[in-house]
Amino acid sequence: MSDFFFARSQMAMSLAFHIIFAAVGIGMPLLMMLAEGLWLRTGDRVYLILAKRWSRGTAIMFAVGAVSGTVLSFELGLLWPRFMAYAGSIIGMPFSLEGFAFFLEAIFLGIYLYSWDRLSPIAHWLSGVAVMISGTISGIFVVTANAWMNTPAGFDLVNGQVTNIDPWAAMWNPAAFTQTLHMTIAAFQAVAFAVAGIHAFMLLRDRANPFHRKAMAISLAVGLLAAVAQPISGDLSAKHLAEYQPIKLAAMEAQWETESGAPLRIGGIPDTEAEVTRYSIDVPYALSLMAYGDPNASVMGLKEVPLDLRPPIAITHYSFQVMVAAGFAMLGVALLGMWLVWRRRRLPDQRWYLWLLVLVSPLGFVAIETGWIVTEVGRQPWVIYNLVRTADAVTPMTGLVVPFVTFTLLYLVLAVAVVVLLRRQVFDSPSPDELSQPAPAAKEAPYAAV
Description:
mainly alpha
């Protein structure tokens, strides 16, 4: 295999690993902030224990995410020096601002973890709000840089040279809003369903456990709101792609012919030789309506695109289908849970529903991973859309198989360590003594007895 293959594979593996921790850095602080807010409102000690447990999980994931993010920053320079040489002066600002937001998140997370008995309850809760805001902003800045790769802006090309750089226009490029919105909602949704599924699994053993019942209630509520918002975000993204990246949209839908009233395909197997998509369920006019708001609008097909400018059709199409299926599965389970709550006026704790939550719990991260495959693979053969090809941006170094294997093993070890730590520090049920201790008044400090 070529070094080009290993360079791309190592970057893909590092991104796939790091994006999980980046999403947790966005979504988990919201859960811990909600738990502490409910403690302040109700004085129920279980919410206080929950906030502390979730803050430990946030700290664990933050630490590992910092390591994997550092690795990524080195890989950008080592594996893609030509890309950085071209783009560094244009999109350097969002990376710098992301670093600033990252350090703010670290500072406020440290305050949150170690000041339970040093700050007033309200001040302590506000430090958690700061963790959530800075973590979300950090993710937004990174995604704007990726969005720039899809819709490069904020500079002029004069005789092949980059001039007249406008960092703000580059950062807030045409894809920035839709891509950051979609990713931010996805992070909240993925974390919420993962947490809800874990606590649902624990409730299968002890359905009366107040710790897991309250944890599932909070995370499921957040997951429902995110799952409802995500299709709206997806619709905005589809309209953006139709205008700025029609080739990617055609690959996502395996749309070969340019046609008016184009159908939306559910499933299907793209045949790149015959240039047809077999066995799909076609919804007439739906793609035209989704992309342009007009059921009779014309949608460009892949046959208009030269072979060397087409992305890998099968990977893009299958990844998109998995992402959408995962999203709608989570939405369906969340809406079903809401209906059960409305009908029974209590937490939906039937065994069959708890098992449903367990089954869909990883789908948020599956959707994130496949969504990023669509974003990156669907842009190929360009690393910077219509400007720099991926093959021209890679490092000339050789012998990349060794670091690829090394980092793969490192990530496997880190993944196992994270799972073990989360189980012991976060998700195990509190002891009866811990739950039965008298709770201090919510208006008082310290919290240190927990």
